[in-house]
Amino acid sequence: MDDVNVIEVSTTVDSGSVLGRHVWVRAGTRLQNVQIGDDCFIGFRCDVQFAAIGTSSMLATGVQCMGTAQAPIRIAENVWLGAKVAVNAGVSIGAGAVIAAGALVTADVPADAIMVGRPARFIGFRSVVEDGRPSPEQVLAKVRERARSGLPSMLDRSTQAVARLKSLNPEAATWDISDDALIDAELRGGTSAEIARDCILIGRSSRQGGMSQLGGIELGTGVRLGEGVIIEAAGGVSIGAFSEVAAGATIVASTHDHSFRSLPWEEAPVRIGSRCVIGEGALLVGPLSVGDGAVIKPHSVVIRDVLENTVVHGVVQLMEIQE
After folding, report:
1. For residue range 226-259, what is the model confidence (pLDDT) as tens digits?
2. Which domains does the chain have, with CATH numbers?
3. What angle do CA 159, 154, 49 make, to 5 degrees?
């Protein structure tokens, strides 16, 4: 186990990449020809190629930075890239910039800019309290200790045995959980939920060492999670009975307060009602509530409440959908 950095399972770091100190790279990420400064965080299933990332920068789940040898990407220090942000080759992002979830960055971004949309547009500059830069260093110590104690961990697939997960989470005893899922979460709910292969589920309540009293994942009876679904439930995620979350969807129940330079973590619970359909590749970022019977179209980004029995495309499309 690395005593400086934490590189989780199913992650690829090629020989052309150089990592600083106190770097946390989460499961399923690929790094190719990447230089990463100290105190950086790279979320689940990111794909970063031919890029330089400055000290204390944070990339959330699903970020795509596809630079090339001829047109590398340059990300300065203390930058925040939200979930499923995409950055085009040759782009430079200035220090302290914040890029909202689902944004597509096609042009250079000035320091401390806040950018949203596809393509990303400028909506203002950060006004920040200079309270220091973020670092995962303290959290990494807890991650290592959890792995050493033999608890479910993203550092050791042998701790992910389904039988053991069910013994630790008795309410999930009747669930159909793929052996290929990665789960480090407090699970509760109804019966006969299904978790398909390649899902990643994290989040525990403060009762089990998590950050929030609301943390953990509650799945109602008959809930189905498709292949490759990611649920980050440190701030709490509940999904009502007989709802379906299609392949590749991502649900994130936390956010960061960008009015502070340190980007402090905040709980942002996600509540999904019964008999909802969350489309393929959709992104839901809390705090939000989705009413019973709602349908989220594929590849939508949803950051606000959805009324019951409505059909929504979200605030932005991650890709063009053919009706």
Report:
1. 999 999 999 999 999 999 999 999 999 999 999 9
2. 6-125 (2.160.10.10), 161-317 (2.160.10.10)
3. 150
Number of helical (H) and strand (E) elements in the chain, helices listed first? 2, 37
Contact 53, 40 (CB under 8 A): yes
Could you say which DSSP state residue 260 is in? B
The token pair at 23 is 């770097």
CA distance 170 to 189: 10
Q: Are 297 and 98 in contact (CB under 8 A)?
A: no
Q: What are the distances in angstroms from CA 35 to CA 7, 15, 29, 38, 52? A: 15, 11, 15, 10, 5
pLDDT tens, residue by residue, 24-78: 999 999 999 999 999 999 999 999 999 999 999 999 999 999 999 999 999 999 9
Structure tokens at 216: 């953990």
Closest by CA position to 244, among listed 211, 203, 214, 274: 274
CA 50 to CA 66: how far, in whole Å? 7
C-alpha separations of 93 from 42, 74, 126, 136 in Å: 16, 6, 14, 21
Burial of residue 138 (CB within 10 Å: 0-12, 13-18, 19+) is exposed
